[in-house]
User: Fold this.
Amino acid sequence: MSQHSGASVHEAYGKAVEERMYALATEELTQRKVRVGLWAKAWSLARGNDREAKARYLALRVEMMIAEHTLSASAADWRLRLSMEQQLNRAA
Assistant:
């Protein structure tokens, strides 16, 4: 596989994940199960315009999902590194 096709697969995967995140955020809106703090921020940024607040909420929520995923992955990476260090120390 060429480097270009690998990057294309990675980009396509990222787009598919992002689309799913927007779908989840839309479900939250339609089911009225929004995150109160994010909704308040969206409402404030939209200056009370309901349609704009919904659009801003979607963008903010997806940003938050990405941030949470990054934190989760970082924590998992940290735990793995810590475990490996402990194993190396035991072996030494």
